[in-house]
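Field guide to reading this record: the first block holds the primary sequence, the second block holds the structure written as C-alpha cells, and the final block holds curator observations. Each block starts with its own label. This record concerns TonB-dependent receptor, catalogued under organism Empedobacter falsenii.

BLOCK 1 — SEQUENCE
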Amino acid sequence: MFFIGLQQLCHQTNTNYTIAMKRNLTLLLLLGSAALFAQTNIKLEGTLFDQKTNQPLSEKTFVVEGLNIQAKTDDKGHYEISVPDDTYQLDIKVDGYQSVSQNLSDSNTLNMYLKPEDFKDGKIDLETAVVTANKIKSSEASLLNVQKKSVTIVQNVGSQELSRKGLSNAESAIQQVTGISKSEGKGGVFVRGLGDRYNSTMLNGLPLPSNEPENKNISLDLFGSDIIQSVGVNKVYNVDLYGDIGGANVDISSKLYEGKGFLDIEFGSGVSMRAVDRTFKVANNLKYYGFNRNNLPTSIKSYQFVSRWSPDKSAFPVNQDYGLTGGKSFNVGSQGKLNVFGTASFSNSYTYEDGFQRVVGTTNDNIEVDYFKVKKYEYSTKTTGMLNVNYKINPKHQLFANGIMVNGSKSSVNEYDSYLPQDNRYEFTRQTLTEQNLLLIGQLLGKHQLSDRLDIDWGASYNLVHSDMPDRITNNLIHNDGDNYAFNTGSPTTNNRYFQYIDETEYAGKAILSYKLFKNAENDYNGKLTIGYNGRKKSRDFESNQFNFRISGDVKVNPNKLDDFLNGDNQASSPYIPGTFFINTQRMESLVPYTYNGDLTVHSGFANFEQTINDNFTYSLGVRVDKVLQEIEWDTNYPMSGVKFSDADIDKTFILPALNIKYSLDSRQNLRLSASKTYTLPQFKEKAPFRYEGIGENSVGNPFLNSSDNYNLDIKWELFPSSNEILSFGAFGKFIQNPISQVLLNSALNDNTFVNAGENAYVFGAELEVRKNLIKNVGHSELSAGFNATVMYSKQKLDSDKVAEDTKNTLSVNFNEKEDKLQGASPLLLNADLSYKVLKGNFKPSFTLIGNYFHDRVYSLGSFERGNIIEKGVVTLNFISRAEIGDRWEMKLSVDNLLNSKIRRIQDNQQGEIDTRNFRKGLDVSLGVKYKIFK
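BLOCK 2 — STRUCTURE
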C-alpha cells in the first residue's frame, strides 16, 4: 500500500508532487534520525596464544583499551567478552605482551597471537601477529566498514545481503543501490537517469564485453548469486577506472573461498502463474539446455531449413533449477595456502505476458497499426560454471586464476493480431525468436607486497562472446472473416527467416603500483602515490542473412500449420508461379551476409595521490589519460550515399581529472565531496548503419555519432550508527556536452536512430539512504529495514539543425521542442526492504519483502509532431523466504511480482497520452532446496 500510495501521489500535479516530496523527505529524515538511538552489544569469543610458543595463554587477565573492559582467559586460553555492536576494532593489552589491534569481521570468533614484549622486530614473523578466524569480507558489516573508511564514494552489495534478501543475480543486487532502476524496455539498468551507454561493467577490476548487440554492457542477470562475492557500484569516478563512464561502474567480485572443505547440492522448481494455466507455445527444435545452433543454409535452390515454421506446445511449463557448489583450502609448505572454489548450475523459466501495442501518428486518432491482441511466450535458460583458484604464496604474495562460462538463452513465440486502419485490413503476425549468448572469461591476477611501502596489483583477461540468433522466423498473414487466413504477399519480406551471428573478443590488462608516503609516529603512513596502466582491445564481428519467401497467388493457410505449404514440395525455381514460393535473400540470390566489424583500442595511464592530513581530513587527487581509437567498417542493409568508414572513426585523447575529499566529523560521520570529468563513447550498434527490424519498432545506427563529455559533482553526508546501519544524504549534478539520445527518424519505416541531440544536457538530484536494525538479537531474532530514495531533475537541449549538420544531411529529425527531459531520467526512484530472521535453533527461517518504484521517464524522444514515448512508472513487490533446517538443509520460497503491475508505454501527443504498449507479466512462484553433502 505504501508504494501504491506513492505512485498515486506522483500522478498529481507537479506542485503537489514537489510539496509532498519535501514533506515526506523531511519527515523521513526526522524519523530516521530518531530511530538511530538503540545500541546493543555483541558477544565475542576466541583464544589468546603466545606467538613464540604457539601455546594458549591460560588464566591471563587482559584489557580491551578504549572500551573500559577487563576480562580473563580460562585454563585453555579461551575468553568471552561483550562489546558494543558498532565496534570496528579491538585493542587488547596483556601484561608481558605487546598490544594487539584487530579489525572485526562479521564472525563472532576472534583468535589472537600475541608477541612477547622482550622480542625485537625481526625475531618473529609480524605477519602472523594477528589471526582472525572465519572473516567474512562480503558481510554487510564488513562492506559498510569499507565504505566508511574509503576516501571515494562506493556502495557494495555482498553475498550475505544477496542471501538475506533472496536476490538471485547481480542485476537484482544493484537494484537495491540508491539511484538505480531497471528498464523493461531497454537492456540493463539506469543510474541516476543514465542508461546502458553511460555505464560500464567489470569482473575483478577487468572489463567485460556485452553479450547482446543492442547493449554496451553485459546482462547482469547472467551472474548468479552463487558466483558473486560482492557487487561494487561506483557512481563517483576515480582514475583507476576507464573513463567511459557517465552513470556508474559496476564491478563484480567473483566468489573466493577459504576454509575447510564443503560441497552443496541444490535443486528447485517453480511456475509463472500466467504461463502454467494455458497451452504454452515454444519454438520447434528448441534445445532444453539452451545450446541452440541451426546451421545457415548453403543454398537457396533447395529447401534446407531444419526448424518448422509453426511452434510446438509444451505440456509441462514448470521452471527448474539445480546446481553443485564446493570449495576447499590446502596448506602448501609452511606459509602457502591454495584455495579452490567451483560451482556449476542450470536454471530455466517459462513466462507469458499479453496485452497490446500501437504505432501512433501525430494525433491520437491517427493509429497507423493497432496490435490489439499480443501474446508473448518465452522460455529462457542459464547454465553457469566457474572455477576460482587462489594461491597465497605467503602473507605478501598471492595469485588468482578465474575461469567462468555462462550460457544464456531466450526463445520466444510472439503473436500479434493487428488492424491497419488506412487499409481497413486485419493481419496476424507471428515471430519466433531464439537467442543464445555464450560467454567465456579467463583471468589471471596477482597482488604483491614488495616492501612495507611498495605494492603491485596486476591482472590480465581474455573474454569471448558468441551471441547467436539462429533462425528467427517471421510470418505475416491477412486475416479475413472467421478462421480464413492467407499469406500477405504485399512485400517479399513479410515472410522470412533471419540468421544473425556475433563474435566478440576482448583482451585487457592492468598494472598498478602503490607507494606509501609520510611515515608517522605510529609507524603507519599518511599518504600514498598510485600510478598505473590499463589497456583493452575489443573486436566485434557481426553478420546477418535474411531469407525472404516470395509467395505467389492467394494461398490460404492455417496459422498453426504453416509447414503444410512452406516446405520443399512447394518451392519454385523462379518467382511468380501461382501456388508456390520462391526464396531469395536481401541481396537477391546471394548468400553473402550483411556485416559490420568494429574495433576499440584503449591505452590508459593514471596517477593518484592520496593523503591523510589529520584524523579527520583525507583527500585524493588524480588524473587519467585515455587514448581511444574506435573504428567501424560495414556492408549493410542501410546504404548511406557518400558516407566513408573514416566518418565513423573516433580517435581522441581524453584527459580526466578526479578529486575526492573525505572529512570525518567524528568516528561515525563523514562528509564527502567528489568532482571529476569522464566521457561516453557510442557503441558499435549505435554507429553501424544496420537496420535492426522488430515488430512495430526498428532501429538504425548513425556513423556520425560522437562521444560525450561528462562533468560530475557529488556531495554526501553519511552516519554509521552501528556496524551494519547507515543513514546518508547526498546531492549530485552532471553536465553533459554533446549528449546521445534515441529519436524517431523522418522515415516511412518507423526507424529510430541515435544522435547527438543538442549542445548539452544536465541532471541534478538528491539521494537518501537508511539501513536500520529495528530489532537485533532479541529473543534470538532480528528485524531490519532498508529504504532509499532519489529525486532528480533533468533537461537537454534539442537541435534538429545540429543533427543535420553533424550527419552531413544523411539523417533527418525534427524535434518537437527546443529542450526536453533527459532520456531515461525518472524524477523519483524508491527502493525498500523489510527482513525478519531467526538466529538460533534447528529451524531458522527468514522473511524478506522488497519493493521498488520508478516514476515516468522518457523512453525515446518525439519527432515530427509525434510526442515522446514515455515509460510509465511501475511498482514491483517481491517476497522471499529462506529457512535453515538443522546443519545441512536449506529451503527457499520466493514470490515475484506480487502486485502484477501493468507495464506501459504511452505517446505524449498534444491531445494527451495514448498507450503504445500495455502488458502484464503475472506472478512467479518458486520453491528450492539446498543440501550440504559435507561441510
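BLOCK 3 — OBSERVATIONS
The CA atoms of residues 264 and 932 lie 4 Å apart.
Helices lie at 2-10, 14-35, 140-149, 159-165, 170-174, 273-276, 684-687, 800-806.
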